[in-house]
Amino acid sequence: MSTLTDRPTLTTATGAQYARLWGVGGYRPERVVMNAELVEAIDSSDQWIQERSGIVSRRYAAPDETVVDMAEHAAREAIEAAGITADSIGAVVMATVTHPYQTPAAAPILADRLGIRSAAFDIGAACAGYCHGIALAENMVRGGSAEFVLVIGVEKLSDFTDFHDRGTAFIFGDGAGAAVVGPSDTPGIGPTIWGSDGSNYDKIAQRDSWIEVKDSWTAVDEESIKFPAILMQGQPVFRWAVWGMAPVAQQALDAAGIKADDLDAFIPHQANMRIIDAMIKQLKLPSDIPVARDIAETANTSAASIPLATERMLREGQAPHGGLALQIGFGAGLVFAAQVIVLP
Ligand code: UT7
Fold it and tell me: Which domain holds residue 274?
């Protein structure tokens, strides 16, 4: 094969030197669901749920409220907090596993509602989706493919919950969180430590595939498809989260060149209060560093949990604007992502 030598050199994109979060927003649906409402169907108790998970209540979206509706609330708040207008946004990245359509993605619908025609796509990285989105946004801003990126984590898990499944019926909640990532003169998002273990894909998974693989052909067999609830093997996931994720969080600190006691906030995925406490211990996090405990009132909202917890900590003054926060998401895949950020 001959080599072409007379071709012009391509012009490539160049972006900002650094990226940072400019603003965050959150949306919690109106309906508060206490444990008492769920315990009968799973032969449980408010006390058991609180002791084993730290969850007191969660929010459920209205039947006709969609992930796009919830995302729109959070996105508008984040854009306002960032002090920009929607037309500056070059990409909308929506992290969700509960948009009930295989296609089209939810992000273009949201972009249209915001009155923009930017790049817009969904990512499926479950409870780590928001941190994956922040990693992509940081790279896009520095790489020059967008000046501002809107990242949303949103879930309507109540649509995908089997209310008779003891391991998950009480765990999930609905909500949306969003962040605007844009250019910065100083470093605002540390390196992302991320990865996957697909050999454990079945530990948190939708009950059935949408299609049934039969011999050498595939077909939708309506008879055999069960309600696609998301189920979880609680104990192995718990062990993986406790023993596997603290080292990832430590690597994110090391990569950013900071120590645990430099942090102004620790914002882990809100999966279980006991997992949060175990991670604090393993990271040897000093006791005066604020830790997100939004799970008590919001339960596990998968991709939305970290931005929702971040929005709350800033709004309630638990964490300072401009402070350093370590965030880590982990979940179905199995997948994970962690990074240190400067709070907007
Ligand atoms: O977001 C993605 C990442 N997700 C996570 O990281 C979640 C990880 N897993 C967990 O948070 C926990 O495994 C759960 C909260 C889901 C469950 O807590 P656990 O302490 O692991 O419970 P277990 O499955 O070990 O069950 C302990 C006991 C059992 O009874 P015996 O055998 O000790 O008599 C269960 O039968 O609790 C019983 N049990 C329940 N009792 C009341 C299990 N589920 C329930 C229930 N209510 N809902």
Answer: 193-342
Q: With b meaning 16 or more CB within 10 Å and e meaning fewer, what string describes 234-252?
A: beebbebbbeebbebbbeb
CA–CA gap between residue 262 and residue 259 (Å, rounded): 5
Residue 2, in any domain of the structure = no
Ligand 1 centroid from CA 171, angstroms? 10
Residue 35: active-site member? no
Q: Are 140 and 123 in contact (CB under 8 A)?
A: no
Model pLDDT, residue 216: 53
Decide if 321 is catalytic.
no
Residue with tokens 């929607």: 86
Please report where in the chains the tokens 């209310």 appear, as a residue.
163
Among this protein's residues, is 269 annotated catalytic?
yes
Token match 């006691």: residue?
261
By the 8 A CB rule, do 38 and 154 touch? no
Q: Whose CA is nearest to atom 47 of ligand 1?
A: 44
pLDDT tens per residue across span 254-291: 999 999 999 999 999 999 999 999 999 999 999 999 99
Instruction: Tell me the mean pLDDT in the region 171-197.
Output: 98
Atom of ligand 1 nearest to the CA of 169: 48
CATH number at residue 173: 3.40.47.10
Closest to 155 measured CA to CA, from 179, 177, 137, 138:
177
Q: How far is the CA of 241 from the centre of ligand 1 (A)?
A: 14
Instruction: Specify the pLDDT at position 213.
Output: 59
| Paired tokens of 26 | 């959150």
> Which member of 35, 99, 127, 132 is catalytic?
127
Q: What is the CA(157)–ligand 1 centre distance, in A?
A: 19
As a whole number of angstroms, the distance between CA 180 and CA 22 comes to: 5
Could you say which of 184, 208, 234 is where a domain stops? 184
Say yes or no: 149 and 206 in one domain.
no
Indicate which residue of 99, 131, 269, 272 is catalytic.
269
